[in-house]
Design a protein that fits this description.
Layout: H1 3-29, H2 41-45, H3 51-59
């Protein structure tokens, strides 16, 4: 069996393994893994913030809060943009 065929089969097996693993996670938990800082309650409880928000707080330009009226910045990684739009 050629070496390239073995590599392709191993790669396909690895991808299949991860697809099955993610499918089992979805079936058991009933939802996708929530890795977004702005929506993950456990990350918010631990005080984890996105890098953009931490940089703005360090620069003193933050003014990011959940009740902020500044467009493009609502205190979470999903809304804070780097360009300060």
């Amino acid at each position: 069996m050629p070496a390239w065929l073995i590599v392709i089969l191993c790669a396909a097996a690895a991808v299949g393994f991860f697809v099955i693993g993610m499918s089992l996670t979805l079936m058991i938990k009933g939802h996708f893994i929530d890795s977004e800082i702005s929506t993950n309650k456990n990350m918010q409880r631990l005080g984890i913030k996105c890098a953009v928000q931490e940089t703005r707080e360090a620069d003193g330009t933050a003014q990011c809060s959940d009740t902020s009226s500044i467009p493009g910045c609502s205190g979470n990684c999903g809304a804070c943009d780097i360009e300060h739009k």
